[in-house]
Amino acid sequence: MWFFTHVWIIPALMALSFLLILFFGKKMPKKGAEIGIVFVGAAFVLALLTGGNWIAWSNNNPEGHGPAAEGAALANVDPSCSSVAAEAAAVGEGVEHVEGKTEGKTAGKKAGEGHNEGGHSTEGATAAAPPIGESAAPAAPAAPAATEPAGAEKGGHEEVATRPVVSCINWFENGDQTISIGTLVDGQSVLLLIVVTLISLLVHVFSTDYVHGDRRYTHYFAFLSLFTASMLFFVLSENTLQMIVGWELVGVCSFALIGHWWEEKPNSDAALKAFLTNRVGDIGLLVGVIVLYFAAGKSFSIMDLNILANEGEISHNLLLIGSLCLITAVMSKSGQFILHTWLPDAMAGPTPVSALIHAATMVVAGVYMVARLYPVFFEGLSISGSSVNALSMIGAITALFGAMLAFVQKDIKKVLAYSTVSQLGFMVTALGVGAWTAALFHLFTHAFFKACLFLGAGSLSHACHHSFNMVDDMGGLRKIMPKTFWTYLVATAALAGVFPLSGFWSKDEILAGTGSFPGTEGANGEYHVMLVMLLLAAFCTAAYMTRTIWYAFYGEYRGHGTPHESGPRITTPLIILASLGAIAGIVNLPAAFDFLPEGTQTRFEHYVEPVGLYFPAISHAGFNPALAVISVLVGLSGIGLAYLYFFKDAFAGLHGLAERNKVAAFFKNILVNKYYFDWLYTTVIVGFVKGPLARAANWFSANVIDGTVNLVGKTAVGSGSWVYKNVDQKVVDGAVNGAGSSASGVGAMLRLTQTGRIQQYAALFFAAVAILAGVFVVVIG
Amino acid sequence: MIATLLQLLPEADFLSPTIDWHAIAPEMVILVGSLVLILLDSFKLDKAKPFMPTLASLVLLGALIPVITLAIDGSTRVLFGGSYVVDSMSLVLKALFLVSAYIVVLMSTNYVADGDYWESEYYSLIVAAVLGMLVMCSARDLLMIFVALELLSIPAYMLAAWRKGDEKSNEAGLKYYLMGVFASAVLLYGMSLMYGVGRSTRLDVIAENLVRIGDGRGAPIVTLAMIFVIIGFAFKVSAVPFHTWAPDTYEGAPTPVTAFLAVASKTAGFVALIQIVFYCFAARPDIIQPVFAVLAILSMTVGNLIALKQTNVVRMLAYSGIAQAGFMLAPFAVIETNREQALSSIVIYLVIYAAMNLGAFAVIIAITRKTRSAEITSLGGLFSYMPGLTVVMTIFLASLAGIPPFGGWYAKFGVWQALIGGNTALGYGLAIIMAINTVVAAYYYLNVAKTMWFDEAPDGDTAPVKIPFTLIGAMGITVVATVMFGVLPGLLTNISDFSPVAAALGR
Amino acid sequence: MFLNQFLLLSAILFTIGVYGVIVRKNGVLVLMSIELVLNAVNINLIVFSTYWGVAGQVFALFTIAIAAAEVGVGLAIVLLIYRNQRSVDIDELDEMKG
Fold this sequence. Notes:
The structure holds 3 protein chains of 3 kinds.
Chain A: H1 2-5, H2 9-24, H3 33-59, H4 66-72, H5 83-93, H6 101-118, H7 123-127, H8 129-135, E1 165-174, E2 177-185, H9 187-210, H10 217-235, H11 240-258, H12 265-295, H13 302-310, H14 316-333, H15 342-345, H16 351-359, H17 363-372, H18 374-380, H19 390-406, H20 412-432, H21 436-463, H22 470-473, H23 477-480, H24 482-496, H25 502-513, H26 528-553, H27 568-583, H28 603-608, H29 625-647, H30 654-660, H31 662-672, H32 674-689, H33 693-713, H34 719-751, H35 758-780
Antiparallel strand pairs in A: 1-2
Helix pairs in contact in A: 2-3, 2-10, 3-6, 3-9, 4-5, 9-10, 9-16, 9-21, 9-27, 10-11, 11-12, 12-14, 13-18, 14-17, 14-18, 16-21, 17-18, 17-20, 17-21, 19-20, 19-26, 20-21, 20-25, 20-26, 21-24, 21-25, 21-27, 24-26, 24-27, 25-29, 26-29, 30-31, 33-34
Chain B: H1 2-8, H2 25-43, H3 45-48, H4 52-73, E1 77-79, E2 84-86, H5 88-114, H6 119-138, H7 142-160, H8 167-198, H9 203-213, H10 219-236, H11 245-252, H12 255-279, H13 285-308, H14 313-329, H15 339-371, H16 382-385, H17 387-401, H18 407-421, H19 425-454, H20 469-487, H21 490-495, H22 499-504
Antiparallel strand pairs in B: 1-2
Helix pairs in contact in B: 2-4, 2-6, 4-5, 4-6, 5-6, 5-12, 5-15, 5-20, 6-7, 6-12, 7-8, 7-12, 8-9, 8-10, 8-11, 10-12, 10-13, 11-12, 11-14, 12-14, 12-15, 13-14, 13-19, 14-15, 14-19, 15-17, 15-18, 15-20, 17-19, 17-20, 18-19, 18-20
Chain C: H1 3-23, H2 27-52, H3 55-85
Helix pairs in contact in C: 1-2, 2-3
């Protein structure tokens, strides 16, 4: 319990670290980096201890089913933060008394300590489970949902109820309304605590080498700390208002970090763009939160909201409106189509920052928010038993679209950026189809391999004179940088979903979660379209990642100078992340694997997914061997095709074919033609990727009609380039910028009314008086 | 003349009213203070000069003492037959005016002394204007409100034209003066009609008569009178389309005076609107709600759009102030259904607006000591040579844009809550328009921030300039207030809990 | 009483005053036009005070006194401009705009 009620210490540590670095950093021997590393290390250890405690705590959950037990499970929710939970707990009190508070505490401490001595990584937090699970054998669940029929009734779970711990203090009072600030600890927030602090720690270590000698070195570490603190604050939010504050803080920090090298104008533009695009989504968040505030009977508490939404106390329409508003926020923060444009531009920041933004903070905030308020979405979008909804649609489009765009990038970081967009699409789709655990599991595994890829890209550019252009400035680095190469390769394989790396398990769970593949049992609905789109996206993912490997590591070195392997402070984080990315899948092996010892399957689901009044009774899709084989085959065929094309030049023979056959020519143009890609790179991407806000806006206002014609004309040229050039860079970007430029155009016109002549002012004044008075006297009388 | 007047009184022999001296002690301190300032100047011209700002500060802070004792006492005091009321809300506003004026004095100290302007008159005029503002907080009578308005306006006209030799300042003064007097005339015409239909100058009596008249005979005159009166104050708060004077005057006037106009004078306009609307015109929500909705929408939209195109930071703040006034006008449009929250959200917004806007002006004064120009481009590269100042300015800009955890977000949040809590179509519409405007506004505020952080210094001159102690004090107070109101909004909600007041006038 | 006639008179005065403010180029004449508006106000107040008691007359007295103060300040500003620009044409003051 102590860890759960004092979990606020973790973000507080990071905030303190920020202040210390800001005030004393410059005077320290290592310019403040050591403060950051010590604090984030301490935060990580605390997070691990909390995780160990959470496992012990969950294992001690009292037995019993039904509403009374679920109510009793809420006994650790501070009544002053959630009145609804308190009522439910009071109902449960009579039947069930919560045992094992003290037991849980001591057991948890032991578990945490023991783990701390031996463990070195996050998966340890969950891997440490089995021994504890044995000590509390009765609590260990027998493979639950997979064998259950689809659409299990509420309360019909075999799982015992989760006991979340919510504590809060009064923040301020507004009239008769008390607004609190506090922490909500359950599996989900503990998971994020560990992921965020771990990635942040590794990024800190990596950065000491990577930004070594930077003139704002101290400033950089200060903001890393603040960024981590804001994300942790957000993750632990107890109410939606606190979420907004954390959400905005994360945005402000990203502004400072993306614009870190502001001497180059594109960087500061990118920072501004990231911030402004996010502001658009913030409106959605704000309106959504206010709608839900009234929906939950004037309460900001997440517990209140979730319980009421889950019990069907809130009208479906209100939840629908609220969830749609929140989806806008997710679209901007988590880079979903059509508000994703800031994300690739945000690559302008230092690479470790990109790793932090993409793997652990910022962009996962949107996914986390949906997961946190899941009952709202689950009920509002009628996820169960349906076959399409807004969330899954946006996610699937983003997944496919992002993967296609990644294929035509020249800059290695942009490839990874679009890859993140695509993978976030996977997570959002998973949430949209009811595969909650799969989404969080993918978030967890993705954090490792994506951080590894970004840091690997940083290591590459560190070697290649700070260029990220893999087509022109890299190549043949396999021999020169073996550590970077192998870690990059492992992470790529994990991302592509190669068995048995972590990406395979989480991606397979999402695919199964769509419930549309024949023979899959226990899913929440039948999302056929999503399955097809996700499979296509998985294919593209494998292909574009292979392409990256080719350009960066094979062939001849095309850059300047002599590249060299990076130092240990860069390679060690890479190795840690790559090994985690390889093995993290074992924490959630399918329940169908009954040949494994009992209590080793679905550990992730068991400890992370809440059961009880504040979470919908979702069912879990079972493991489907056929689907797993297909997803592996899709991945391998993507890799294979790209391999044949790039490594073996196998399609050279097709050149002749294309001249004879129109269909082949068409496909050649679309997919294969190397020269075509080169043309694409030189004319399209250089022209538009670097085009800052203003140029795209100009284009939009001057050429809307031309653009439409172009748009149609170029459809034939090729899907990847078309989407990238016209939809992404022109319409989406253009619309965003166009709104801005038309606003400033109107502003310029209105400005003309300010003539500087007093008497025209007086005339305007009196005209307004006359019109107002006239209209009102006539209308109202 | 006086004899005839006295004969007309109901009681033939004139009795002097009993006066609660404690209740009007703040006003008395200010009155005596401003007289002392003027007299001191006349008798001891050169010797007294250096002590003028100190003396003015002492007077302003001295007046804060009776405000505090009255607040501790806590009772509502009614004077002069109900024309003058000292209650918790008026005390909060009086404290706000006194502190704002004190910060303006801090900002002026070096500015006025360096420019070799007329110091003693400057401070006595500011103190005199503050007297008008204090009276405004308690006035519950048309005549009293009018006198308070003129008392605070006339010194402001002179202050705007303070730099006698500078043509811009002259122009600023004349524009402000002519538009101001014209607005006063329209206001007075409205008041005279209001007196005709309301049968009295006392707000509570007028309110009763407005209810009595309703839609009946004389209703068009009621509508006309209300609109004229509201417009008179809409000028003062620079609501669109009565805003035209503001940018020109702000640009031309000496910057501390601009801060005074943008904050104290605008707040006084809002206080007058609160008095008139909440205590009197609320009897006819069918008229005032649409009027305020129109003014609010126009102000926030037009203000923001024009602000996008500004190149001078003071003009940009002028237009941003117009937009902010639009946000503050919005809660008036839900007065019928959500009276209490509307009132407290406006007052909270006023307090936070004062802190962040005064702060922004203080920083601009500090910067222009070096750059000698208020063009936005001249702020380029500020971070490289005055990082502290840049951070402080960024806090104010972020607060103005409404980004947590600075005060501005809470102010906006309160208004949103009031609008949505009103549960009317008008309220929801305003909330949406306001949300869109908040995004537009973020653009030009952040653009300034971007220039300061990311751009190069325009002429490569990166020598830092010394900031006088008083200016640092002004920035310190405002930055602490801005951050504190954002992090601990509870401080504000406690002092602005007027539910008893609002309930009393709820009827 | 001829209430309507007085109100009409004041309305006409008000309109003439507003017209003067908007079209007159000479600063002093603009000031005089504003005086017309204020006189319209005074007529209103005094007419209504015959119905509702002395408060209107008191108000009118205040208006006259304050108008005098306003005009004093106004003339001072106009003089200031005359001294700097040798003209009282308010149309020439458009240095700041936009």
